[in-house]
Design a protein that fits this description.
Protein name: 5'-nucleotidase
Structural class: alpha/beta
Number of strands: 14
Distance between the termini: 72 Å
GO biological process, one term: adenosine metabolic process
GO molecular function, one term: magnesium ion binding
CATH topology of the largest domain: Rossmann fold
Organism: Danionella cerebrum
CATH superfamily of the largest domain: HAD superfamily/HAD-like
Pfam families: 5-nucleotidase
Number of helices: 15
CATH architecture of the largest domain: 3-Layer(aba) Sandwich
Low-confidence stretches: 356-360
Length: 360
């Protein structure tokens, strides 16, 4: 079959159409608004949050589970002028907005900002209540993805997501498998006042920032073998874990403040809160971060002590850990915690194999 060649007229029409699209795009980008425009995704640090992490939808979820989709949508429509209550991710989102405000002061035309996306499998009809709630709290969230009951995971890469926060463990697991930093959000048992001028993010080390390679040795061979292993490989960087890229993104934004001599007033502060011992196994962690070209503002080596009391002093907007007993301990003392379901730790509960516990 012979190839159909474009005529000069076709080429002319296509060129005219491309010019029209370029003109329309330029017009849209030059529109003025008092409300900050979202940054271009290729420059932004994109944070995708589910509706159930941003807002407390416990009552609405109960209607969905007990009465079905139609009653759930009806309830949302009937109450769409009533704002939803803040959820676990709400303080974190507010803190992201504070950082953006500072960045815009220093870089008025800058695009390297946080971009918050509402990523939900809610029906579009529920969107009105979500939008009304976002406007009620004056949140800067312009990008929505409402998938009408389908999993939104496939859209995360399209939105160039740097971090995904959800209440759904299955979706979070799927995101991590796709190489996207993700965690399951938990609201604390008691409310704690948080900083309104600085974003505070706390990370566990193994199986969060780093791979679970060292944790496997602890679980399978004990602490003494682990200490020997870490000493032997002290100068060999650990492999990266699921949240390494998010720490890197935070570090890049911190450098924007450092470049303006704002290190001491930087509105982003990062913390490493690890069960490792400093003298016995801490050097490899710090050398790994150095090899990645990353800084951590504060490093706390607890040598197996509970993390809750230290986190209570730090008061992070979010704390990432791979083990649920650390998450529970953090929650009990008022810390917003996010579980990273990754690595060998998922097979254990408080140091014991879950399969063994089930057999008892």
């Amino acid at each position: 079959m012979s190839e159909i060649k474009a005529t000069p007229s076709d080429k002319k029409d296509r060129t005219a159409e491309e010019k029209d699209w370029a003109a329309a795009k330029a017009h849209f980008e030059n529109l003025k608004s008092k409300k900050p425009r979202p940054p271009k995704p290729k420059y932004a640090v994109t944070i995708a949050v589910s509706s159930r992490t941003l807002f407390d939808m416990t009552a609405e979820r109960k209607i969905f589970e007990e009465e079905g989709m139609e009653k759930y949508v009806q309830h949302q429509q009937e109450n769409e002028d009533e704002p939803l209550k803040p959820g676990a991710a709400f303080p974190f989102v507010k803190a992201l907005m504070v950082v953006n405000e500072r960045l815009r002061e220093l870089y008025p035309d800058g695009e390297e900002l946080f971009d918050i996306v509402l990523m939900t499998n809610n029906h579009a009809q529920v969107g009105v209540r979500l939008m009304n709630s976002i406007n009620h709290y004056d949140l800067t969230i312009e990008r929505f993805c409402m998938t009408g009951g389908q999993s939104p995971i496939g859209y995360l890469k399209a939105y160039m997501t740097n971090l995904y926060l959800s209440r759904d463990s299955k979706k979070v697991g799927e995101a991590i498998e796709e190489g996207i930093a993700a965690a399951i959000m938990f609201k604390p048992d008691v409310e704690t006042p948080l900083s309104e001028t600085q974003l505070r993010v706390a990370f566990d080390g193994d199986a969060v920032l780093f791979s679970d390679e060292s944790e496997i040795i602890v679980k399978q061979h004990g602490l003494d073998t682990f200490f020997e292993h870490e000493k032997k490989y002290e100068n060999k960087p650990l492999a990266q874990g699921p949240l390494k890229c998010f720490l890197e993104a935070l570090g890049n934004l911190q450098k924007k403040f450092y470049a303006k001599n704002e290190r001491l007033q930087c509105p982003i502060r990062t913390f490493l809160v690890t069960a490792r011992s400093a003298a016995s196994s801490g050097a490899r962690v710090l050398k790994t971060l150095r090899s990645w070209g990353l800084e951590i503002d504060e490093a706390l080596f607890l040598a197996g002590a509970p993390k809750g009391p230290l986190l209570q002093k730090i008061r992070p907007h979010i704390f990432f850990d791979d083990q649920m007993f650390h998450i529970e301990g953090a929650k009990e003392m008022g810390t917003i915690a996010a579980h990273v379901p990754y690595g060998i730790g998922q097979k254990y509960n408080k140091g014991k194999l879950i399969e063994v516990e089930k057999q008892k």
